[in-house]
Amino acid sequence: MDRVNPVKKKVVIALGGNALGENLSEQMVAIRSTSKKIVELVKAGYQVVVTHGNGPQVGLVTDCFDTYKIDHDIDRFTMSVCVSITQGYIGYDLQNMLREELLNQGLNIPVSTVITQVIVDPDDPAFNEPTKPIGLYLNDEQAERRRKMGEVLVKFPKGWRQVVASPEPQHIVEIETIRVLMEAGQVVIACGGGGIPVQQIGNRLKGVEAIIDKDLTSAKLANLIDADYFVILTAVEKVALNYGKENEQWLSRLTLEEAQKYIDEGHFGKGSMLPKVIAAMRVVQARPQCKALITSLDKLMDGLEGKTGTVIVP
Ligand code: ADP
Ligand code: MG
Questions:
Q1: Which of 16, 37, 91, 132 is flagged as catalytic?
Q2: Which CATH number fits domain 51-129+165-224: 3.40.640.10, 3.30.200.20, 1.10.10.10, 3.40.1160.10?
Q3: Active site residue 261
Q4: Residues 133, 154: Cα–Cα separation, whole Å
Q5: 263 lines ligand 1 (CB under 6 A)
Q6: Residues near 195 by beta carbon (within 8 Å), at least 6 away in sequence
Q7: pLDDT in tens, 217-245
Q8: pTM above 0.85, yes or no
Q9: What homologous superfamily is domain 228-314 in, according to CATH?
Q10: Mind listing the pLDDT tens digit for each residue in 109-119?
Q11: Is residue 234 in contact with ligand 1, taking CB distance under 6 Å?
């Protein structure tokens, strides 16, 4: 096995929705091309940690349990349990496909998925105002049933959706495990879906009803492992000003000062591009030597080589 090499560059890759697909069959297809791209990096000598989102998947899991509950007297599955299920399910697919692609490239490197808990502050103001939409669009009747189960629902143009709180990630509980696996030369999958949200009560970690933003948790991970590169892979090759408008302008480089100015001017979609820009800023603020990049999956290698993407610089 290819043991750890202190010269190897450490890269955190945060996978977005389009790298995973939105259902079982889409996920199988998407994860194959995603794994090929990641293995290119491993082959090029990078030490890789992969994080991923879980928006559609966690919605599916909660929707299934809530629908089942209509006819069966079962306990409600908490959000923290639902996140853990998606970490296992997505981790399984990724771990399996990465292994296969590594072997196809003649690389006998173990891949591991770490069930990751992330501590949040129960007094985080985010709990007063759930904002993160999950799951399918519901009609009035379905929404009413779910409201009776204690869920918060918000009306969107296409129907009702459940929304949950999205508090700040304070600490990654399994960080030492992630470090040890990396030092052993493994490809690590961690912090899926932003991590399982937990509250610390003495020695006990208690699950809480929330979904942590995966880009913010990934930024925390990049800082804690001293990453050399922090790459957020999403559906667009670059970040834009006036996104989707006639005067749209794609950006190759953003200083912290410019990024803050454009945030204040409202250029980045809330819950989509905004957390990515903030996550990249946090990494560069804490560790200016780290290269923080937002780009698309197919541009991963070009981005790392400085040929494309949006780089956030001090
Ligand atoms: P992911 O699922 O990859 O984590 P999202 O789909 O939530 O990410 O966010 C990425 C999307 O953000 C892009 O596909 C794009 O539609 C949208 N977006 C919003 N504002 C911008 C912007 N200023 N520049 C580029 N994309 C933007
Ligand atoms: Mg998405």
A1: 132
A2: 3.40.1160.10
A3: no
A4: 8
A5: no
A6: 83, 116, 117, 118, 169, 172, 212, 217
A7: 999 999 999 999 999 999 999 999 999 99
A8: yes
A9: Acetylglutamate kinase-like (3.40.1160.10)
A10: 999 999 999 99
A11: yes
